[in-house]
Amino acid sequence: MDMQIYHHLVLQSQNDSFTLNARMLKGEDAMKKSTVFLFLFLTWFVLSAQDKPKPEPEMSVTKHQVRINGQNISYTATVGYMIMRNDEGEDLAKVFFIAYIREGVTDISKRPVTFTFNGGPGSSSVWLHMGALGPRRVQMTDKGGSLRPPYQVVNNEFSWLDKTDLVFIDPMMTGFTRPAGEHKKDEFTGFENDINLVGDFIYQYTGSYNRWSSPKFLCGESYGTTRAAGLSGYLQNRHGMYLNGIMMISAIMNFQASRFNPGNDLPYPLYLPTFAATAWYHKKLDSEYDDLNELLTEVESFSMNEYTLALAKGDQLSEEERSVIIDKLHAYTGLSKTYIDNSNLRLYVGRFNKELLRSEGKTVGRLDSRFTGYDYDEAGERYEYDPSYNSAIFGPYTAAINDYLRRELGFKTDITYEILTGRVRPWSYSDVENRYLNVSETLRESMTKNPFLKVWIANGYYDMATAYFATRYTIDHMFLKPQFKKNINLTFYQAGHMMYIHKPSLEQFKKDFNLFIESAK
Question: Considering only CA atoms, which of 486, 511, 506, 507 is closest in space to residue 496?
Fold first, then answer.
C-alpha cells in the first residue's frame, strides 16, 4: 500500500445519525493526517454515544401471595431504581424503592397507595418494611428480641397490603440509593435537600405508575415523621399533590422538645413520663404504682405543673421547694435522692439509661427501654451501646433484607445495602440555623389548606428516642383550629420506638391502622 495514501474521515449527518465516509487524500503530511483522523474519530464517538438512548434502570418484577386476616392477597413486587433527572435530562440520582401492588384491582381510584420511609437521618426503610407493613416480616420473640441466627423471614399476617399498595423509599445513601454520574451526596442530604429528593420521587412515581387518581398516604417513622410533615407542604406547594392521610410512627416534629442542651429545660418534663414507665417496667418503683396508666397520668400532671415551674425558677427555687421536687422525682424514677440532687433535678437520656440498673450491672435501651445490656464496667457516665438496637434488631433485620431482596425478590447487586448509616452526614439544617427545627408548623399549614388531611400518630411508652409525651406537647402547641385538630388521632403502646417488634403491640397497631385508613381514604 502506498504510504502517501491515507483515509480522511468526514462526518456527515444522515437520518439523524452519524456515519463515516472515507475519501482518499494524497500528498499530505502523515502526522497532520493522523491528527485529523484522531480528532474526527473522537468527535464521531462522542456524538454517537450521545445519540444512543439512556439505559433503563435495573428492575426486578415478581409475583407473590400473602395471607392477611384469613384472606389470600396476590400482589406484584417491583424492586429497583427510579432515575431522577433535571429538566435537561441529566441523571441526578438513583433512588431505590420496593413497591407492592395488589393484583385484581378493577378501580385504581379506590385503591390507596402509601409511600413509606424510616428516619435516622441515615436509615433505610428496612424497619417498617420488614417489621410491620410489608408482606414479609422478620421473625422475633413476642417481646421483640432476637432469635438465634440464622434469622428467618415469615409471612406477615399484619401487613397493610390488604388495605393499601405500598412503596418503600430509601433516601440518599441509604439502602441502595446513590448519586448518579458526577453528582455528590450532599446535593440530596440535609433537611431541605432530602425533602426535595423524596418529594420529587413521589411525584415521579405517581405519574409513571398512574396513581394520580388514587388516595395517597405518607408513612414515616422517627426522623421519617419530620420528613413526612415537611413533605405535606412540599407536595402541596411544589407539585399540587394533596394527601388523604399521614401516618407518623414515633413522631418528632419539634426538635426543641428532645434536645437536652444547657438552657433548654423543655425536654426534662416531657421525658419524665418515659423514665417513669421504664422504672415501672423494671420494678424500681414502690408497689403503690401497680397500674402503668394511672402512674403516667400522675407523672404527666406533675411534669406540666410543679416540675416545669421548678425548672423555670432556676436558682430562685427555695430549698423547701427543691426538696419536694427531689422526693417526687425519686418516687417516679427510682433513682436515689442524692443522684437527683447532684443532677440539678435534670435527668436525661444516656445518664438515666446507665443509672437506673447500675446496681445490677445493667443498662437500659434507648430505642426500647424494656431491653437491657452490659457494659465494660458499671462506673461510666453513659451506656456503651444501645441493647435495644445492637442486641435486638440490627443483626436480624440486616440479614433478612439482604437475603430477601436477592433471593425472593430477585434484585442482584454487589453494593452494600446501608441499613442505618452515618454516610449521610454532615446533615445540614442550614435553613433553620440558630433555632430548633419545628415542622409541626408545616403540618399545621398543610392541614389548614387541606381540611380533609388526616393524621395518625403512634408512640411507644418505652421510647427514649422520641418520647410520647413530647409528641403530645407538640400537637398541643400547633394551635390548630378545632375542626382541624379533630383530624389528628394519637395511639400509644407498651413498647418502644419500633413498637411493632412487640407482638401484642403489632396486633393492635394493625387494628388501629385499619380504623384510620377507612376514615381517611
Answer: 506
Q: What is the mean pLDDT of residues 184-193?
A: 96
Q: How far apart are CA 299 and CA 305, in angstroms?
A: 10
8-state DSSP, 205: H
Please state whether 139 falls in left (phi above 0), alpha (psi between -120 and 50) or beta: beta
Give whole-number Cα distances, 463 to 62, 248, 364, 386, in Å: 37, 14, 11, 12
pLDDT tens column, 113-172: 999 999 999 999 999 999 999 999 999 999 999 999 999 999 999 999 999 999 999 999
Residues with Cβ within 8 Å of residue 466, at least 6 apart in sequence = 222, 225, 250, 251, 252, 258, 459, 497
CB atoms within 10 A of CB 238: 14
| pTM given for the model | 0.88
CATH class of the region 60-256+419-520: alpha beta
- Nine-digit cell at 464? 427514649
User: Is the distance from CB of 275 to CB of 347 less than 8 angstroms?
Assistant: yes
CA distance 51 to 13: 12
CB neighbourhood size of 386 (10 A): 23
* 3-class DSSP state of 166: strand
C-alpha cell at 236: 402541596
d(CA 511, CA 157): 12
Backbone phi and psi for residue 232, each to the nearest 5 degrees, phi listed first: -60, -35
Q: How far apart are CA 493 and CA 461, in angstroms?
A: 6
- With residues binned 3-state (H G I as helix, E B as strand, rest as coil), the percentages for the chain, rounded to 5, are 40, 20, 40
Please give the radius of gyration of the chain, using alpha carbons only, rounded to the nearest integer: 28
State how beta strands 71-85 and 91-102 pair.
antiparallel
- Report the candidate in 499, 394, 368 with the shortest Cα–Cα distance to residue 151: 394
25 confidence band (pLDDT: 50, 70, 90): very low
Phi, psi for residue 470 in degrees, rounded to 5: -65, -35
| Domain range annotation of the chain | 5-51, 60-256+419-520, 262-391
d(CA 362, CA 356): 8
In one letter, which amino acid is 10?
V
**Distance set, CA 93 to CA 83, 209, 418, 492 (Å):** 6, 19, 16, 37
CA–CA distance from 348 to each of 199, 273, 464 (Å)? 35, 12, 9
| Distant-in-sequence contacts of 334-343, Cβ < 8 A, 24+ apart | 334/279, 334/284, 334/285, 335/279
Say yes or no to pLDDT of 208 above 90.
yes
